[in-house]
């Protein structure tokens, strides 16, 4: 009781001072370009070439500045009291995991209210994207996050504490699961005071993170380049942290469309049992960083027609999302905002790796695939062999900021891809043994596959599809 009421144990002068400071901060946020450059009543504003703005609306900023300052009880850093001698190991004892190291204040209630949970994973570099994700996804969010060494864990503690202190949506909706590598596992947590994370500007989450990352040690940066990022481990951890019947598995910088969770939840609750297992594909687009986030599908198509949005990885590796059939999706235009199936995926191919919604009974991501190459597409391939039907939803969509162009691949990334290619030769035989099916004729000799345009093809392209968090 004391903790819940202690804010009011102040003098009247203190309360007045706090109120005035909130008013001044509100005015600054609404006029400094961080929160006021937002959605406009005119859809044409969404295609004007202006600097990319955060997704926060002025009303949301106002809510956060006033409500958070009065109701925020984030007086401790994240992971406080976490015993690093505990945790659980993966099957090869390469990584240690701490499930629900941080629990969203409303995560249990949201898990009961929504039939679907967003599961995602990230490293320190991209975790700022959760600000946008949590604004558009009002349901539970299960996030697995990786930290390499004492210094990175310390920076992660500060930044996650900052996010929870500044953003109500993150504090309430997001639960975090921590992953640490065996050979750089910290032995203890550093002492962090409230002032260490409350001193940063709540209006600048990305800039704050960039400043913190500069403090990371050189040896940690070198280790990160040399060692693969365990994205499949993290995907499995995040997915199993979801308590809902369905999971929408994404990478942290994939931003859902507005009111995504509510529309998807209603759709899922209205579905009747089907004769075959189903995964619902959500189209993903790249978005020019100079435009504002599209408010709906019509807005997105207008951006695409102007060359300011395009299918995800269209230039980097087209097969990554090609089977979704974006042309058909864009042709499915309706004034209704009711979520429905636009069409079935009929031209599935091995390198396809969509972001999809499915029950939490789908095959896990194979954790032998570390770093880049064969991480997501192998799991989707196994679903296809197991008999899953992929159906494309409309008008829901997701967005990845920035129009990507093909770049030369660094040597370390190519090495990881080559290692994973060897594992794939084992994996595809295991899949055949499990299901006694080879619909894409992956077990044919490579020469025969090439003659008929079958098989894995250029697996390096599959690596390009891995959106490392």
From TrEMBL:
Names of the cofactor(s): Mn(2+)
Protein's GO biological process: protein O-linked glycosylation via mannose
UniProt KW Coiled coil keyword: no
Pfam assignment, any one: Glyco_transf_49
Pathway: Protein modification; protein glycosylation
Protein name according to UniProt: Beta-1,4-glucuronyltransferase 1
Lineage: Eukaryota, Metazoa, Ecdysozoa, Arthropoda, Hexapoda
Annotated localization: Golgi apparatus membrane
Single Gene Ontology MF annotation: glucuronosyltransferase activity
Keyword entries, A-Z: Glycoprotein, Glycosyltransferase, Golgi apparatus, Manganese, Membrane, Metal-binding, Signal-anchor, Transferase, Transmembrane, Transmembrane helix
Organism per entry: Aedes aegypti
């Amino acid at each position: 009781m004391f903790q819940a009421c202690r804010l009011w144990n102040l003098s009247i002068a203190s309360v007045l001072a706090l109120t005035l400071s909130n008013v001044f901060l509100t005015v600054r946020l609404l006029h400094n370009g961080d929160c006021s450059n937002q959605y406009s009543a005119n859809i044409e504003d969404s295609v004007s070439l202006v600097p990319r703005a955060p997704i926060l609306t002025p009303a949301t900023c106002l809510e956060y500045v006033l409500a958070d300052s009065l109701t925020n009880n984030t007086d401790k850093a994240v992971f406080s009291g976490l015993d690093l001698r505990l945790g659980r190991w993966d099957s090869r004892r390469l990584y240690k995991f701490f499930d629900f190291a941080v629990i969203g204040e409303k995560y249990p209630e949201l898990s009961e209210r929504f039939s679907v949970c967003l599961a995602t994973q990230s490293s320190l570099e991209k975790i700022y994207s959760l600000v946008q994700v949590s604004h558009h996804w009002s349901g539970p969010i299960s996030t697995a996050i990786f930290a390499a060494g004492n210094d990175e864990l310390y920076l992660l503690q500060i930044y996650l504490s900052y996010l929870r202190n500044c953003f109500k949506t993150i504090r309430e909706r997001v639960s975090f699961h921590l992953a640490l590598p065996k050979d750089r596992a910290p032995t203890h947590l550093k002492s962090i005071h409230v002032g260490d994370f409350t001193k940063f500007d709540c209006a600048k989450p990305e800039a704050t993170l960039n400043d913190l990352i500069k403090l990371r040690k050189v040896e940690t940066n070198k280790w990160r380049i040399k060692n693969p990022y365990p994205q499949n481990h993290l995907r499995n951890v995040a997915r199993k942290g979801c308590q809902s019947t369905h999971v929408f598995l994404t990478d942290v910088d994939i931003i859902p469309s507005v009111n995504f969770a509510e529309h998807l939840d209603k759709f899922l609750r209205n579905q009747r049992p089907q004769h075959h297992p189903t995964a619902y594909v959500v189209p993903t687009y790249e978005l020019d960083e100079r435009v504002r986030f599209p408010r709906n599908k019509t807005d997105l198509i207008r951006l695409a027609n102007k060359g300011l949005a395009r299918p995800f990885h269209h230039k980097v590796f087209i097969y990554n999302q090609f089977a979704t059939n974006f042309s058909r999706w864009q042709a499915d235009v309706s004034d209704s905002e009711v979520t429905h199936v636009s069409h079935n995926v009929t031209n599935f191919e091995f390198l396809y790796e969509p972001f999809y919604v499915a029950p939490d009974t789908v095959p896990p991501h194979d954790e032998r695939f570390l770093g880049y190459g064969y991480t997501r597409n192998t799991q989707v391939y196994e679903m296809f062999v197991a008999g899953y039907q992929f159906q494309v939803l409309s008008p829901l969509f997701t967005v990845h900021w920035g129009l990507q162009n093909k770049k030369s691949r660094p040597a370390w990334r190519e090495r990881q891809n080559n290692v994973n290619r060897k594992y794939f030769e084992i994996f595809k035989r295991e899949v055949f043994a499990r299901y006694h099916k080879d619909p894409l004729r992956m077990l044919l000799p490579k020469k025969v596959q090439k003659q008929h345009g079958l098989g894995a093809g250029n697996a390096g392209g599959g690596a390009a599809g891995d959106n490392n968090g």
